Amino acid sequence: KEELALQLINNSQHEPRLYQHSYFRSAIILILALLMIMVLIGIAHALVIYRAVAMALFTQSEVNLLSKHADLIAVMTGAVLHYLTIVIMTKVNWQVALFLCDLEEPRTFSQRENNFTVKIFLFQFFTNFSSLIYIAFFLGRINGHPGHYVRIAGHWRLEECHPSGCITDLFIQMAVIMVLKQTISNIMEYLIPLISHQLRKKKKRPKKRSLMLGEEEEAEDPCKRQWLNNYELNEVNVFSLFNEYLEMVIQYSFTTIFVAAFPLAPLLALVNNVIEIHLDAIKMMRLRRRMVPRKAKDIGIWLQVLEAIGILAVIGNGLVIAITSDFIPVQVYKYMYSPCMGENHTSMDCSTGYINNSLSVFHIQDFEPHTKVLPEFKGVQIKECRYRDYRNADDYTYTVQFWHIFAARLAFLILFEHVALCVKLIAAWYIPDVPQKVKNTILTEKHSNLRNELSTTEYSTEV
C-alpha cells in the first residue's frame, strides 16, 4: 500500500503492476539455486579431501611438531581454509542471489527484498555450516574400519575423530571460525568505510561544492551545510542495513545450532556485539550517509528465518548430544554393561572400564596387503590391536551393544526434540513478542489521533 502511494505521488498516471507467475521461470530459478547449493556442498567436500591429504602429509613429515600433532594441525588449517571460503563465497553468494532475483522479476521492492533474503540466507547457511555438519555427524562414521578403510582415490584414508571424541573436532572448527569472523571480519568491516571516507575527503572538489551552494549561503543556512556534509560521506544503498541483519542472523545460527559442542559461542557473541554496536554506530553516523527511513511493521521475513533457525537449533543440538558426543554410549554402558550391573558395588564408579569396552579387537593379519608398518614396530610380534568401534572380533560385524546404543540415541533424540520444542512453544507464549509498554504507547497514540480526527470532523460538520 505504501509503495503504491509513493508511486502515485511521484507519478499520478502510474498504473499498478499486476501479479504474474511463470512456472518456467520458477523452475529455472529452482534449478539454478540447487546447482549453487551443490557447489557449496562440493566446497565442503573439497575441505574434507584437504584434511585427509594434509593429515597424511603431516604424518609423514620429518618435522617432529607436524608429525606428532598431524591431526590437530590438519583440523586447524582446515578451519582457516573454511573461513577463507566463507569470505570468498559470501561475495559470490551475494551476486548469485541478486542475479536470481533479477531473473525472478518480483513485482514490488518488498517482494524482491524477501526473495533476496531467503536466497542469500540459504546460500550463506550452506557456506557456513556444510563443513560443520560433516564434522558433527559424518566424521569418523563413514571411513570404514581396519582392513576395510574408505580411501580417497584409493590412497588417502578419510580422517578419524580426535582420540577424545568427534565433538573435539567440532569444537576446534567452531572456535577458529568464530574467532576469525569476530576479529578479522569486524576490523575490515570498520576499516574499509574509514579508509574510503578519508580518501573521499582528500578527493573532494571544493569548486563543485561552491557551484552547488555559495559559501555565504552555506554559512547562513546550517541545514544546507549539514546536507552537504552528509553528501561527502560514503554512499549507501538499499542493502546497507541488510548486511547487518544477515551478520546477526548468521551469528545467531552459530550460537544456537551447535551450542552443545561449543558452549563458549554465546559468550563470544555477547562480547562481539558489545564492541560491534559501538563500531556500527560510528560507521553509520560518521562514515556513511544517512539512509532514507522507510516505514516497516516489523523486521519482515527475518522473523520466519529466525523461527527456522530455532527449529534447526533444537534438531542440531539433539543430534550433537545423541550422535556426536559420548553421552549416550556412556549411559548405556553404565546401566547395561558396567561392573555395577553384576554385583552391588556401591563404592565403584559405574564408568570404570568404559574406554576398554568402547574398543574393538582387530587382528593384524587382516590388514590390507599394501598396509605399511611403522618403523618403530618392525620386528615386534603384534597379533592384534584395538580401535574405537563396536564390532565383533571374528567377522567385524556390529555387536549387540552397538544396536543398543543406536536405539538409545534414537530414543533420546526423539524425546529431546519433543521436550525442547514444547519448552520453546511455552516460552514463546509466556514472553510476548512486543512489550506491553510499546503496545500501550501505540494504543495511546492511535486513540489520541482518532480523537483529534473525530473532533475536527465534528467541528467541520457544525460549521
UniProtKB/TrEMBL annotation:
GO terms for molecular function: chloride channel activity. GO terms for cellular component: plasma membrane. It comes from Ploceus nigricollis. Keywords: Membrane, Transmembrane, Transmembrane helix. This is Anoctamin. Belongs to the anoctamin family. It comes from the Eukaryota. Residues 12-442 form the Anoctamin transmembrane domain. It is found in: Membrane. Pfam families: Anoctamin. InterPro entries: Anoctamin (IPR007632), Anoctamin_TM (IPR049452).
